[in-house]
Design brief:
Layout: H1 7-14, H2 17-20, H3 34-41, E1 45-46, E2 54-59, E3 65-66, H4 68-81, E4 84-87, E5 93-99, H5 103-111, H6 145-155, E6 171-174, E7 188-195, E8 198-205, E9 214-220, H7 225-239, H8 250-270, E10 279-280, E11 290-292, E12 298-302, E13 308-309, H9 311-323, E14 327-330, E15 336-341, E16 357-359, H10 372-375, H11 381-386, E17 391-394, E18 408-413, E19 424-429, E20 441-448, H12 449-466, H13 471-477, H14 484-497, H15 512-523, H16 537-548
Helix pairs in contact: 4-9, 6-7, 7-8, 12-14, 14-15, 14-16
Length: 567
């Protein structure tokens, strides 16, 4: 069957987004059609036909750097129009609950500030991100913000690219030896490297929320990044698939023609030979609330309420930054970093223990099933914070919470597998995310919310008993050497037995029979054995339903009260 352009590409062929913008002032936001919704995304406006009176406006903040003045002015707009604020997982700001009558006025006021909403949704180069300690942290070797602004300015209103790429491009770049969070979920990641005594960047490509970017075996000096970026974007523009939307990301292009094939397309535009990769300079470090900077001053991490922010908070942050001559930076961990404190002391108090947790927009997004930011209260937050465990919480399989690039990942969902439950979470475990080795593997397809705290607490307890320094080391030494089904059954058996028998350390994944003997040694008295045949599958189904079909007590409320689904 002949390939046909997907629907979005057919709209682009009829009218380029840049030409659509010429009539922007005439748009009737109360009577949009499907084409309007496609085009508006290219200018940072999101709306769906089933939430037609509610709009979202996304603001791109290149490198997460925003002036105190603009931060305050955005807060003023939010207060004036009674909007809801979310900090995005790409260092941007998202405004929700925008009414149709106000979209144009708010959009104009934001873009007049010198920040931009352009290309923050849709088939575009999305907000380009870096580490919040770029250029100033003790681990910084190359400041990348000037490069980010070069790339940002090149594409932001370029008529060739506005809304015209085959699919979105996410870009991460860091010149730091250690980063607050990983960048391997990006379509392209420029990572600090060293070759022949010179610092530069190794190139990794093909990442997304469910895949890690792979080495392209290319080393670039700082002065070569911008030209490579232009060649990269043009190669994807010319050669990316424009057919099935499910197969249009750079990951799929590389899957189709291979890394060497895509590199050949880039090199044709780059017009120079590539150097082979250098030595990746990337260490795992734990970052606390205060971080010492290269100049002897300090940065303070203001932890948002799982990315939620109020206009009053923004005002307080802006006032504090002004009084202390601080720089405001937004990071992909959805927190706010204040740079330049003379002492590691702050009058601001964080709203939550969220520094190591990324949560998607939840029920503010039409694709999410649950109010994910409320469901974070089902997690053992104290333990997560104590051990600096990286957690990603997504509201749907699109994975905006990067749940497969964290120590513990969750997708909120609804199912009747365990009776009349309000909802639950699919759990992923053990990504080797710091250096992009692997994404997390699925532990359970669904755990009802009322059992989530107990289950995640047990996972953390087994980690504590293992004695490893951090969860990622535990994953690399223990978890990855267990098959997924064995690992899941081990957790369930401990829950059934109300025990905390640590996982055995294996050299590699063993045979089914070997893993079965390990289970029998510790859990022979349990009744799931009659359900084990040639695999653990039926035993997993039996034991999970036995443990979770009976409704548990909501760990957040005593006595239990029924929560409301705000959708």
């Amino acid at each position: 069957m002949e390939n046909k352009l997907n629907k979005r590409e057919r709209y682009k062929a009829q009218l380029k987004p840049i030409d659509y913008y010429k009539d922007f002032d005439k748009i009737d936001f109360e009577s949009l059609n499907e084409a309007d919704r496609f085009y508006l995304q290219d200018f940072g406006i999101f709306n769906t036909n089933f939430l037609e009176d509610e709009f979202t406006i996304r603001i791109r903040i290149p490198g997460g750097k925003i002036s105190t003045e603009n931060f305050q002015k955005i807060a003023d707009i939010v207060a004036e129009y009674n909007l809801t604020i979310i900090l995005t997982a790409r260092s941007g700001i998202q405004l929700h609950n925008v009414e149709a009558d106000d979209v144009l006025a708010i959009h104009k006021r934001i873009n007049a500030l010198g920040v931009s909403t352009w290309q923050s949704f849709g088939d575009n180069v999305r907000n380009i991100v870096t580490d919040p300690y770029d250029g100033c942290g003790e681990f910084s070797e190359i400041e990348t913000y000037p490069l980010i602004m070069q790339m940002h300015n090149y594409i932001i209103e370029n008529p060739r690219y506005v809304g015209m790429l085959p699919r979105r491009i996410s870009i991460g770049i860091s010149g730091n030896r250690a980063n607050v969070t990983s960048f391997f979920a990006n379509d392209i990641y420029f990572a600090l490297a060293e070759k022949e005594g010179v610092f530069g960047f190794n190139v990794y490509m093909g990442g997304k929320n469910t895949e890690v970017a792979r080495s392209a075996d290319i080393f670039l000096k700082k002065g070569e990044i911008f030209d490579f970026f232009k060649a990269f974007v043009e190669a994807f523009y010319l050669h990316g698939s424009r057919f099935s939307r499910a197969k249009t990301r750079i990951f799929h292009l590389i899957e189709d023609i291979g890394m060497d094939g895509f590199k050949a397309h880039i090199q044709k535009e780059y017009k120079r030979d590539f150097q082979n990769q250098g030595n990746l300079i990337l260490e795992k470090k734990e970052f606390s609330e205060f971080h010492k900077l290269k100049d002897g001053k300090f940065a303070f991490c203001y932890q948002s309420d799982f990315s939620r922010l109020t206009a009053n908070e923004m005002k307080n942050i802006a006032d504090f930054a002004t009084q202390n001559s601080l720089e405001i930076r937004l990071a992909i961990d959805q927190n706010i970093y204040l740079i330049g404190l003379k002492e590691p002391i702050s009058a601001l108090k964080s709203q939550a223990l969220s520094q190591t947790i990324v949560a998607c927009a939840g029920n503010l997004c039409p694709y999410a099933v649950w109010s994910i930011k409320d469901e974070t209260s089902y997690l053992p937050l104290d333990k997560i914070n104590e051990h600096r465990i990286q957690v990603g919480f997504s509201g749907c399989a699109k994975g905006c919470g990067r749940h497969r690039h964290t120590d513990i990942g969750l997708i909120g969902l609804k199912t009747n597998n365990f009776g009349d439950t309000e909802g639950g979470a699919r759990i992923f475990l053990g990504a080797l995310h710091s250096d992009g080795t692997s994404v997390g593997r699925q532990l359970f397809s669904m755990v009802p919310f009322v059992h989530l705290n107990e289950t995640v607490s047990l996972v953390i307890k087994l980690f504590e008993l293992s004695g490893y320094r951090n969860f990622e080391e535990y994953a690399s030494q223990v978890l990855i050497h267990c098959s997924e089904d064995f690992l899941s059954l081990w957790i369930l058996a401990n829950l059934e037995k109300k025990s905390s028998v640590i996982l055995p350390k294996l050299e590699k994944i063993q045979s089914f029979e070997y893993e079965k003997e390990l289970l029998k040694k510790e859990f022979a008295e349990l009744d799931f054995w009659e359900h084990i045949g040639e695999s653990f599958h039926d035993a997993l189904s039996y034991l999970s339903k036995k443990l979770w079909t009976i409704e548990g007590e909501d760990p957040r409320y005593k006595p239990k009260i029924h929560r409301t689904n705000f959708r």
